[in-house]
Amino acid sequence: MPSASRTWTLDSVPDQSGRLAVVTGANSGIGQVTAEVLARRGAHVVLACRSPRRGQEALDRLLARAPGARAELRLLDLGDLASVRAFADGWDHGRLDLLVNNAGVAMVPFARTADGFESQFGINHLGAFALTGLMLPHLLASPDPRVVAVSSEGQRFARFDLDNLNAERRYRTVFAYLQSKRANLYFATELQRRADAAGLGLRSMAVAPGLTRTNVLTGGANGDRGRLHGTLTRLLLRIAFRPTPAGARTSLYAATVPDLPGGSYVVPDGPLQLRGEPVLRDRERAVRDTVTARRLWELSEELTGVPFRLPVRDPRSP
After folding, report:
1. Fewer CB near the terminus (10 Å): N or C of the chain?
2. What is the widest separation between alpha-carbon atoms in the chain?
3. Catalytic residue among 171, 177, 253, 265
């Protein structure tokens, strides 16, 4: 298994010419940096964003910073399965080489998605699950498809309860967020196991960005929590969190390092894996918990109505 270089930076991203990538939540934060770096390296990048205005502003910024880059905006709301289906139905590029499931919400007040799911579970996991399943035929049309799920090191502290994923009994903001991030890791590793069993070349990765300054804690639903909450959160971000480009390194490492094996979990190398260069970690309980991952997969197919149809490839075929 390759180990990360301690000098790996955003400038280490190899040439991406010819690759077609989708980055969800690319209008700000880690998603915006991920999309811009991929575009600078030659990829054709689709910014999948919920807000038309913020998405267009992000696209304008990208094109201003990287003249000649190939990038476009497409609308996608992971909190609405109809929007996810519309995105997939409108795909007209044929193959898809890279899907970065980056968009999400963090520690928001209780709310339901358009389909009635608790918002953190519904957006962070079910929306990304449905999008990946619906885009799967396009991914499998690529000679080297890759899917990256942006999880969090906080998932290690999740009390994962399959009977309360959707706030059926009680809602606690932090625990719901941690569960959704654990679900991201379960999904990424189970997708790899299923692709391997089918003899497919798809590689599924999960990443943790570490403590990163983004607007996920201050924007969206969190923007309505009052001036004091916003002031204290922004102060914490400035003091304890690192700049956004540093947080994007694990996503870009997982998305672009050529010899990275499928099923990798990429985290920062530092105290509590919250800061530092990208490294691989395989001593992770969620990575080895195949029973829970399988049960979550089956539940997710049932809730979203999106079955994953993985064709079995003849091992004798080239």
Report:
1. C
2. 63
3. 177
